[in-house]
Amino acid sequence: MKRLVLVPLLLALSLFLAACPAAETPAPAATEAPAAEPVEAPTEAPAAEPTEEPMAEEAAEEMSDEMNIVETAISAGSFTTLVAAVEAA
Fold it and tell me: Would the CA dihedral through 33, 34, 35, 38 be positive or negative?
């Protein structure tokens, strides 16, 4: 009878000890960040240069030449449900 109580008790104790976390390791000591050196403020504001945006136009042309998302999904062949839902909408 004592043996029948002892086995489940030892099993429960071993599960309890296995679930407990290991001893915590001490956290590493905090290191100080290097002191920031003062930066001189600029005396004159930089002149604004006119910028052109040819890159935006080129990107728009490339986007129109490329396939849209539906065409990409159709060509992939693995998005049949998505293609059917988009075409139905």
Answer: negative
Question: How does DSSP classify residue 52?
Answer: -
Do 83 and 73 contact (CB within 8 A), yes or no?
A: yes
Domain total in the chain: 1
Is the whole model's pTM more than 0.90, yes or no? no
The residue written with tokens 């590493």 in the block is 28
Encoded amino acid at 33, one letter: A
Phi, psi of 18 (to 5 degrees): -70, -30
Residue 84 belongs to what domain range? 58-89
pLDDT in tens, 19-37: 877 777 777 776 776 677 7
Would residue 36 count as lying in a domain? no
Taking the alpha carbons at both ends of the chain, their separation in whole angstroms is 72
